[in-house]
Write a structure and sequence with these properties.
There is one protein chain. This protein is mainly alpha-helical. It is built from 21 helices and 2 strands. The protein has helices at about 5-20, 25-40, 50-70, 70-85, 90-105, 115-125, 130-145, 150-165, 170-190, 205-210, 210-220, 230-255, 285-300, 305-310, 315-340, 340-355, 360-370, 370-385, 390-395, 410-420, 435-455; strands at about 265-270, 275-280. It has a two-stranded antiparallel ribbon. Helix 5 packs parallel to helix 7 (about 130-145). The longest helix has 26 residues, at about 230-255. The two termini are about 35 Å apart.
Length: about 450
């Protein structure tokens, strides 16, 4: 590694660090500054922006955002709340399962903000330390991203893997990640079940209870969505959304079973007889078509308000992810593309002996980048160029979630604020926060299980 290469790598890392400090759109925008320095300052050839992945994210987020505007998200939250209130004694296990499957369904972890105060309220009123379900539930809301067939991380993995000779579809990816991540979450919930002091033995909590104002603040109101009326159009939007996901899964399932129903089109390549080679429509295009069409059906039949969709949390957070992936991936592709021979020479020995070690690189990059999709887009091409087999990369896919390590992600910060008992905390020393233990247990377990599953199947 030359001195110039080290300086340019520091530019990349500094851009990611500064962008993560500002958060939101800044992560992608400040990556643009790093890109400008590499191209105009050091004369590196610019890489390629991840347009295929961005198009999928836009389509999926538009569909989920329109469903939210129609009221469908409120109905899903109500269903989850009914389950949690029916089984309050086991909320440490049920809460993360609810937040996990909500994320799996809609492809983004930002849908849980309405559910998190309910989790806190149920735990507190039942006398369960809220930190126990809240910490692991926040982790679960992000773990679900690598398990959603329409999430950016899964779509990115499929597109990049297919381009590098590992023919896998969305259904095959989540067939590995869902059981692996569920094992990780169950392990994290088990470790959280008796975590910390019980409320009746916690001096800090008892001190808060002794204060009349704090006591009224903690126990005075009941957070709930059950009093919200859900009309038929809201439910219809959910049915349309589920049908869209079902269509995508159907295409993937038929592809796996050997009778591919995807439309085929002629390419510029000719076969031995001089006829154009027919190629099936790529799954990333199918996802875009189905998601955009479903959004249109919701607007027409479920009367979803497009302006309300644009102002919703799901659509806005999705567009932030688009900008982040756009800037980060372009910056990373520019650096890696110009130094691929050096990187291959320096890392090939390690990854050839221990290919699973790439999981550590995925995790460390994710600590800096608050986007699993961006980690996949930035790091997966490098991993394939190093000769790491596709099944290994699929197995360690859960390791792209590491941004819980430094507790600055919106869902973690919001969870701390939602917990009126004060038991869910950031910690005096920053890293001793309520999300560290469940996050590490979940990611480590999920990665190991995922790797073992792929070794058995592939």
């Amino acid at each position: 590694m030359t001195f110039l290469m080290i300086i340019e790598l520091l530019v990349v890392l500094l851009a990611l660090y500064v962008g993560s400090r500002y958060g939101s759109l800044a992560l992608g925008a400040i990556s643009g500054i790093g890109l400008a320095i590499l191209v105009f300052g050091f004369g590196l050839k610019p890489g390629n922006p991840p347009t295929d992945v961005i198009y999928i994210i836009i389509a999926a987020v538009t569909c989920a955002g329109v469903m939210q505007a129609a009221g469908g998200m409120d109905w899903l939250i109500q269903v989850a709340e009914r389950l949690l209130r029916k089984h309050p004694d086991h909320i440490t296990f049920y809460a993360p399962l609810c937040t996990f499957f909500l994320t799996v369904l809609v492809g983004t972890g930002h849908v849980v903000y309405t559910l998190m105060p309910i989790i806190c309220d149920i735990a507190l009123k039942k006398g369960i330390r809220p930190e126990r379900p809240c910490g692991v539930a926040s982790i679960a809301s992000q773990v679900g991203i690598t398990c959603s067939p329409i999430a950016a991380a899964v779509a990115s993995f499929v597109v990049i893997s297919n381009a590098n000779g590992f023919n896998v579809n969305n259904l095959q990816v989540i067939a590995i990640t869902i059981p692996a991540c569920l094992c990780g979450l169950i392990a994290a919930a088990a470790c959280s079940y008796k975590r910390g002091k019980d409320l009746d033995k916690d001096p800090e909590f008892l001190k808060r209870c002794a204060d009349p104002e704090l006591n009224a603040y903690m126990y005075g109101e009941t957070a709930t969505t059950l009093n919200k009326k859900i009309d038929k159009k809201a439910k219809l939007s959910v049915y349309i959304f589920l049908c869209a996901i079902g269509v995508i899964v159907l295409f993937s399932l038929c592809q796996i079973l050997g009778f591919d129903i995807r439309p085929r089109f002629a390419t510029d390549t000719l076969d031995a007889a001089g006829n154009p080679v027919m190629k099936p429509l790529a799954m990333n295009i199918i996802i875009q078509i189905v998601m955009i069409a479903a959004a249109a059906f919701m607007i027409i039949f479920a009367k979803a308000n497009p302006k309300k969709a644009v102002g919703g949390a799901v659509w806005q957070s999705g567009m932030v992810a688009v900008v982040a992936i756009y800037g980060i991936a372009w910056l990373a592709d520019t650096f890696f593309g110009n130094y691929m021979p050096q990187l291959q020479g320096g890392l090939s020995g390690i990854v050839s002996r221990y290919p699973w070690a790439i999981a550590f690189a995925f995790f460390m990059v994710s600590v800096l980048i608050n986007s699993q999709g961006a980690v996949v887009v930035a790091m997966l091409p490098l991993a394939y160029s190093l000769g790491i087999p596709g099944p290994v990369l699929l197995g360690v896919l859960p390791s792209v979630y590491g941004y819980f390590f430094i507790p600055n992600y919106p869902s973690d910060i919001a969870t701390v604020n939602f917990d009126r008992s004060g038991t869910t905390v950031i910690g005096k020393y920053l890293l001793n926060h309520s999300f560290m233990m469940p996050g590490m247990v979940s990611v480590v377990t999920s990665t190991i299980v995922g790797y073992l599953l792929t070794m058995l199947i592939y």
